[in-house]
Design brief:
Elements (H helix, E strand, L loop, with lengths): L3 H37 L3 H10 L11 E2 L6 E2 L7 H4 L11
Antiparallel strand pairs: 1-2
């Protein structure tokens, strides 16, 4: 059975080996990426541009209802607030 010190030495050696393997794999991946970028004529600007254009922005919806007592508003989307859910005639809260 190995001693604690021997196991620690093995761990240290394995960590060194793992770091070397990681660096080699990163170098290989970078070379592959550069090759593909050159093959297809892709630039770094193309990469950043595509990620920004794919993100959609949410449009704000104007409020449709207003509580005259508190001034709070509701767009009509999602769960209705208590002040309109309990109303017998929700049309009275419509913003005109």
């Amino acid at each position: 059975m190995a001693t604690y010190q021997e196991i620690k030495a093995q761990i240290a050696e394995l960590q060194i080996q793992a770091e070397k393997a990681r660096k080699q794999e990163i170098a290989s991946a970078v070379a592959q990426i550069k090759s593909l970028m050159a093959e297809y004529g892709i630039t770094v600007a193309d990469l950043s541009k595509s990620s920004k254009s794919s993100a959609k922005k949410r449009a704000t919806v104007p409020p449709k209802y207003r509580d005259p007592a508190t001034g709070k508003t509701w767009t009509g989307r999602g769960r209705a607030p208590k002040w309109i859910a309990d109303a017998k005639n929700p049309e009275q809260y419509l913003i005109k």
